[in-house]
Amino acid sequence: MEKLVHGTKRSCYAVIFSSQRTSGDQGYSTMADKMDKLASQQPGFLGVESVRDDSGSGITISYWDSLEAISNWKKNQSHLVAQEKGKQEWYENYSVKICKVEREYSSSGQ
């Protein structure tokens, strides 16, 4: 997955997707790779960070330059297909939070 370029000087928006996976893959990995690539091509996409533990619990945070860009991604036809598969097959449960990132700093001083 592409990482967010740290040290941005302007605010942005974060979509926090927390989920619990079902057991097995059922095509999840292939679709996740496809969605990562497609998201990175969307206007307003800034980057993504993602982690998942051995129990299937995971958090993916995607960063966007506007609420409009987030809305457009949510309505993308290929993404709609992936969302439906997620509801039907891949996730026991999930939640989505949209937040405004006012600033960022890190241990590297950026």
Rg calc: 14 Å
Mass-distribution shape = globular
Helix content: 25-40%
Give the overall average pLDDT: 90
Span between N and C termini? 21 Å
Strand content: 25-35%
> What structural category do the secondary elements indicate?
alpha+beta
Poorly predicted tracts of residues: none
| DSSP strand count | 4
Number of helices: 3
List the strand order in the largest sheet.
Answer: 2-3-1-4
Oligomer: single chain
Biggest sheet details: 4 strands, antiparallel
Element order: H for helix, E for strand: EHEEHHE
Structure, explained:
The protein is an alpha+beta fold and 110 residues long. The protein has helices spanning 28-40, 67-74, 77-90; strands at residues 12-21, 45-52, 57-64, 91-101. It has a 4-stranded antiparallel β-sheet. The longest helix has 14 residues, at 77-90. The two termini are 21 Å apart. The mean pLDDT is 90.
